[in-house]
Here is the input.
Amino acid sequence: KQEVTQIPAALSVPEGENLVLNCSFTDSAIYNLQWFRQDPGKGLTSLLLIQSSQREQTSGRLNASLDKSSGRSTLYIAASQPGDSATYLCAETNFGNEKLTFGTGTRLTIIP
Amino acid sequence: EAGVVQSPRYKIIEKKQPVAFWCNPISGHNTLYWYRQNLGQGPELLIRYENEEAVDDSQLPKDRFSAERLKGVDSTLKIQPAELGDSAVYLCASSRRSARETQYFGPGTRLLVL
Here is the structure.
C-alpha cells in the first residue's frame, strides 16, 4: 500500500527566510510526485509536478526535488512571504495505477 | 480558462437525509475525480471517470454513495442516506487525459451532517 508522510504537521517561520518542506513515500514504483497548495476553505492548487525521471522542478521561488532511492521529496521556498501561508500537500502516483496518494500536509505560517 | 466549478459550496443536513454535489470540470478535460477530505487529512479518491466511464470506484462506499457523469462532462455525487461520518469536504478535480497529469481542483463542497 502506498503511503505518503509529511513532517512536521505545522511550521512557522519569519518572513524572508528560506524554508524546506518534507515529503516521504514508500512507493518504489513512483510515476510522479506533485506538490499542491491549499488555502483555508479552498481547493488545491498544483504547484509543481516532478516525473520519476526528473530530479527537480522549479517555478519562481519554488523548487521541488525528488530522490526515489531514499523515498523523499522536498519543496524549497525562497525568501518566504506572508502570502505563502497555506497548507502544502504532496501526492504521488504509482506506475501500476493512476491514483494520487496524498500526504496529510504541512500547515505553513509566515510571520510578518 | 474557467476552473473546476462545484456547487453547492456548503451544505448542512440531518443524518439519514440525501444530498447531492455537482461538478463541472475544465472544458476539454476527459478525466474527472471525486475526492473526500476529512479535517487535517489529505484528500482520498472516491471515484475516477474517464469520459463517462467510471474506471476506478474501488474506494466509493457503494451502499450509500453513487455517482454519474452523463455525456462525459458534468458529474454528480450523491449520498443517500447521509451519516454523521460523512461530514467532510468533497472535492472535484479534472485533468486533460490521465491521472498522471496535473489535476485541477475545484473549491470543494463542505458537508456537515447533524
About this structure: The mean pLDDT of chain B is 93. Chain B touches chain A through 23 residues (CB under 8 Å).
